[in-house]
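Researcher: I'm preparing a figure for a lab meeting and need a structural model of a single chain. I don't have an experimental structure, so a prediction will have to do for now. The sequence is pasted below. Please return the structure as tokens so I can convert it later.
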Amino acid sequence: MSYPGYPPTGYPPFPGYPPAGQESTFPPPGQYPYPTGFPPVGGGAYPPAPSSGYPGAGGYPATAGYPTPGGYPGAPPPGGAPSYPGVPPGQGFGAPPPGGAGFSSYPQPPSQSYGSGLPQVPLPGGFPGGQVPSQYPGGQGPYPSQPAAMTQGVQGTILPAANFDAMRDAEVLRKAMKGFGTDEQAIVNIVANRSNDQRQKIKAAFKTMYGKDLIKDLKSELSGNMEELILALFMPPTYYDAWSLRNAMKGAGTQERVLIEILCTRTNQEIREIVRCYQSEFGRDLEKDVRSDTSGHFERLLVSMCQGNRDENQNVNHQLAQEDAQRLYQAGEGRLGTDESCFNMILATRSFPQLKATMEAYSRVANRDLLSSVAREFSGNVESGLKTILQCALNRPAFFAERLYYSMKGAGTDDSTLVRIVVTRSEIDLVQIKQMFKQMYQKTLSTMIVSDTSGDYRRLLLAIVGQ
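Model: Understood. Here is the structure written out token by token.
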């Protein structure tokens, strides 16, 4: 199947899980399933999840350090921040720029006020090929700003089920798979309406009750994209990220887009847990694998990301933002050639709110936005990685909405990207991603899923995404 162009060269094929013909080689009880052909497990089963979790999602790590899309603590309302030197009073971030100029670029979340007191500036760039269309693909008019409805905090489309009974669910799944044929609707009803933590409990209850591995039974009943989606839903989030990274690097070729999407968007806590899981489950060092599969400035950027040491202080230092903007200008637009290490240092270490303030300052220093400067100074994978970090600083849900759009745009569907984003964001911010998708492309995510998928796979995706 050919995949849509994002970038134009397309995505490399995403192999099955596990490779066809090797379904029977399942790991011993107590370990998570992983494709045959991976190195032996170094440390046994992945340790149990900590008790703290995503909001309402049970035992998986919270997205520590990131504010909810509703804004940063103590931030003044849009337009209400103290004035920056030389800026007219009342032009806080989130207020319209002077002269009535509208946005011509990546969507802005006005609800995320950092108290910078700066006017908004156009921030184009970040689209495939570095080209900034005058409007969203398939849409009318200039890019809209983030809707006010997105100020209600981080929201997933999947919430833990009330009155949850793991043994009852395990029994329903057993009946759905027993005998002639499979009751896929019964399977969809359960997996799409339970949190990941609850799915882990169902898996344990199934083995206790029937002495069989639920995943192995599901694999024998399912195939293709439906199988990949179900298996992803039953993997703990950290393991799924680690598995996706391993899958992107094993064998010939590397799926750089997967490395960028995971390593450049996760929190420090999530990255550190991915690194530990990668070592314990696959007996391999993530940083070492990244080094052997990438090179140059792209390798350095990903190694920086693997450290999980980004500053996560939510307070913005405007003096530092001004200095960083000046440094970035002198390292790129303001000289012949590019000092790549300066870009790496600032984009890999500063907090996301700090980077957002730096982007605002940069637009005044360089009379150009930072995303388009990155497009002019860099190319290939390192350009994509740097842009991903900046896009997440601006509007994380919009970044994932764009990735989802290009996974389905054009002929064919990049099902692995579609599955990965829908599953990994389903308990974090899929509600906001849906809102941004509709705003950016004038169609709903579910409409596009309906036109690009079919059968039980479509039914399960729609059950997770919601209407």
